[in-house]
Design goal:
Blueprint lengths: L6 H21 L7 H27 L3 H15 L5 H22 L1
Protein name: DUF1825 domain-containing protein
Pfam family, one: DUF1825
InterPro entries: DUF1825
Length: 107
Amino acid sequence: MGFFESDIVQDEAKRLFADYQSLMQLGGEYGKFDREGKKLFMERMEELMDRYRVFMKRFELSEDFQAKLTVEQLRTQLSQFGITPEQMFEQMNLTLERMKTQLEAES
């Protein structure tokens, strides 16, 4: 069975995409959240990033041609912006850390 034919892979891809879209839509209202709402939003973003990191690691470790091609396509796309997938995750983490620092400063 191919990597993308796996029910587990398809399920997680759908859930990741749906959760990401929901969080991004919710994030548009971030400035209106109270302190606890902001903390909860950041926790959900961290959880999503962790899930995405694991999902991408599955691609990297897979011997499936399509999975390897997907990883290479992501690397190529990100390289157009001058970054690697690892740097993308690091930037996401830095952004979350700044958000946490800003939240602490507001208290």
